[in-house]
Amino acid sequence: MAVHEKLYTIEEFEHLVMLPENRDRKLEYIGGEIIEVVSNNYSSKVAANILIAIGMYIKGKNLGDVTGADGGYVISGERYIPDVAFIARQRQPQPSHETWNPLAPDLAVEVLSPTDDERDVAIKVANYLAANTVVWLVSPTEQRLSVLAPGQPVKHYYGESEVPGGNILPDFRLQLRDIFEE
Predict the structure, then answer these.
(1) Which of 70, 80, 60 is nearest to 131 (CA)?
(2) CATH number of the domain that 94 lies in?
(3) Domain range for residue 166?
(4) What is the pTM for the complete model shown?
(5) Contacts for 131 with CB less than 8 Å, ≥ 6 apart
(6) Block mean pLDDT (10 aa), the chain, length 182
């Protein structure tokens, strides 16, 4: 959902985000537009289930850090807030204290909600892939998780599938039935 119907520069976006009336809003900068991130309870629950699963897996392994829907990243000059993200410790030894992490995550999870604009999602996915970020695109309504990785064919997982963590999260397996349970 576009907040304003004109194209903005990154400087204008950074200024608008810091205004007192916008401090509690989740705003992204996608394709020159300012987009307010709005979800619903079920999509939020699915994202939380994924965050918990990854968080439990990495706990005590010193693999990296996982962030939720408050962690912002600079991706191809734009500003994104993935629902869940993971960044490896070898790439970022300490968590970023910047408002927008200057390093792209290794994994970005985007949980779709009815208010998401297809164009915005397509731009974000293309920019994540260009930044060498693996994307898990999750559709709660279809109970599907699609893995998009740079230079690889898209893989779709449904129902009782296990989603492997690949090179990013070695030996990790995400049980789809667990993230979609109501």
Answers:
(1) 80
(2) 3.90.1570.10
(3) 39-179
(4) 0.86
(5) 75, 76, 104
(6) 69 82 78 78 93 96 93 93 96 91 97 89 97 98 96 95 96 95 78
